Amino acid sequence: MTQAYLHPIATSRLLLKAALTVAAMLLTFAAISYQTPVPPGSDKTVVDFHAFYVAGKLGQEGRANDSYNMAKMEVAQKDFTGVKVFMPWTYPPPFTLFVTALAALPLGWAYGLFVGLTLAFYITVLKRIAGDHLPGVIVAILPVILLTVMTGQNGFLTGALIGTFLLALQQRSSRAGIPLGLMVIKPHLAAAISLLALVERRWQAMFIAAGIVIAALALPTFIFGLSIWPAFLDGVRESSAYLAQGKYPLFRMTSIYATARSAGLSSDMAFAVHGASAAGVIALLFYGWWRKLPPQLLAASACAASLFVSPYNYDYDLCILGVGLAFVLPGLLERTRPIEQFALLALCWVGTGYGLFTAFAQEPEIAGVGRDPLSLMAPPLLLLIALVALAMRRAVRVRVSDIPATMATESTAPTTAPRAQASEPRQIELA
Asked: Scanning 77, 277, 297, 426, which has the fewest C-beta atoms within 10 Å of its C-beta?
């Protein structure tokens, strides 16, 4: 074992309180700021949550279909914020229904309630996974936590749902189907965890997930009408065209596609590279399950794979990286030298904070391909790959019998389920 130099930091309750206090203060300030009217002629900050709120208002007015039409959505955003912004709405109708309910509250209260509750949910799930090492996880991903608080995005929610699923899967509980089904709000992030449920043959969990998905699809259909689905599909196609044209801010995207486009590849070539990479990552996850990768490593691999499937991933989706890190941090600290530990921390900070830094460092209207040197670097994905590669390089050498007690007991919720027998070569007990 090497000296775990960052152990005092990774388990410091004082540091945890300080980080969460900063996040809470930022959340409170943002909620008050969004609720306070802006004098005419003054600059107004427009963030992702404004798009949530505008889509919700359109839903309340019986115009949910208009949120999927960029021209109409742009007008509604301009009318509400006073600023012309590029924020296409491509969320599935179940999430549109959710923001419609949320928009019944004033903007500041809606933002504070949504971000506050999802952050609390996220921290609770990380605590269940990481145990005493929660401070280390929070410090490592602090940039993306602050980014998600500032933008009001749903990274906390999706990260918490994936973490809850993996915990329930480890306990062999059918309750894993609940968070899996709720991932209907962002199905492209659920491909990897769905694969685990399938290969583990968790039929009860998958049946529950299917029931939740059916209900989640039926409810907005009943409330908004059948026309919501053609509008949604048209919106997705329109958004795909915008992505191919380079209208999205690639410097904040973390997909293989964004990296390939930033490197100068055409849209078709970038999609081809991304598709091949996504298929390869899913195959590697399956291979890890087949080779009986230790439970914590398999869970972390699923988190990493979730970030490689869709070409449309943003930096706030890296909250999922925090879930994967929570599973393996104790083992990493036991098996890395001090210089490697600091390198991993630096990679986490740069990888999760680059989009936030770049957004402040350049003009707000700059986005897309080749318009700014910063956008050409696209390092979030590259650094994420380096982080996962370095972590796995050390961790895959660990045999099941050599997993530290901290990983076996503190990092996961206790379970009384029996372990899989050796006679079941393709079944792994995630416990």
From this structure: 426
